[in-house]
Amino acid sequence: MEYFDTHAHYDDNKYIEDREEVLERIFKAGVTRCINMGCDIESSQKAIEIANNHDFIYAAVGLHPEEIPQSEEEMWKTILQIKDLAVQNKKVVAIGEIGLDYYWNKENKELQKQAFIRQIELANELKLPVSIHTRDAIDDMISIIRNYKIENGGVLHCCPFNRELVKHGVDNGLYIGFGGTSTFKNSKNAKEIVNMVPDDRILIETDSPYLSPEPKRGTRNDSSNLQYIVEKLAEYKNMEPERMAKLTYENAKKLFKI
Ligand code: NI
Fold first, then answer.
1. Residue 20 and residue 36: Cα distance in Å, rounded?
2. What is the pLDDT of residues 177-213, one digit of tens each?
3. Which of 74, 152, 197, 202 is 20 to 30 A (C-alpha) from 245?
4. Distance CA 131, CA 126 (A)
């Protein structure tokens, strides 16, 4: 089986000692496409560097809602730098990760919304898809995805199991990314939510090094754990894991155009 990990962070310091070994191992485990997300300038640059050194890795560049600078001026400057990185590097296939996160910071909601909207516009301008993070911001997220056209597609990454959000995401043409949380025993409505998503809109992801799926929960994650996510989604959708791996691979190729 071949797998496409649509969201990982191999630039993270948790791989500082064995990054090359891990990347070699996941490729051997059948992960033949993987997108490394950027969260700020430094990690976006690292994502590009890793992608340039490995054929099967691609990069996304973006300003994550947890990394919004204190001042508005600084924020616009950062987004301009993100644009330069996207324009200058061929292996950049998306703007991400971007979005809203009111769990860590409720004080800068307006700045978060502005950064998110500006980066949607940037993706439209550069004809790239987006990878969207949402945490504790369901209403504002729904309002933005309804009111701003995401022209080249996108994915609600690590989708919270929230009916309204998934419904609006699907209705507005977005893909839905499922990762480790879909295997957690406390994700009670996971089966229902997965079945709300049409087969041609499902993506898989690990968010490595975070959110390892069962039975690896609590350990450092890597893309070889996609097999557990595929098994669980296939069980929910009542299909063979091979078919789930194949359809999520095809969906990701279509969205990211690689
Ligand atoms: Ni992430």
1. 14
2. 999 999 998 888 999 999 999 999 999 999 999 999 9
3. 152
4. 14
Q: Which position has the token pair 């891990």?
A: 22
Domain that holds residue 78: 3-256
CA–centroid distance, 132 to ligand 1, in Å, is 9
Cα separation, 219 vs 117, in Å, equals 34
**Ligand 1 centroid to 6 CA: how many Å?**
10
The contacts of residue 195 (CB under 8 Å, 6+ apart) are 236, 237
Q: Report how many domains make up the chain.
A: 1
Q: What is the whole-number distance in angstroms between the Cα of residue 228 and the centre of ligand 1?
A: 18
Calpha distance 84→88 (Å, rounded)? 6
CA of 57 to the centre of ligand 1 (A): 15
For residues 48 and 10, give the distance between their C-alpha atoms in angstroms, rounded to a whole number: 11
pLDDT at 159: 80
Q: Across the strands, what pairs with 36? A: 8, 59
52 alpha carbon, distance to own chain's centre:
19
CA of 179 to the centre of ligand 1 (A): 10
d(CA 130, ligand 1 centre) in Å? 12
Please report, for the domain that includes residue 158, its CATH number.
3.20.20.140
Indicate the burial class of 37 (C-beta count within 10 angstroms; 0-12, 13-18, 19 or more): buried
**Residue entry with tokens 């595929």:** 230
pLDDT for residue 160: 84
Note residues around ion ligand 1 (Cβ under 5 angstroms). Answer: 207
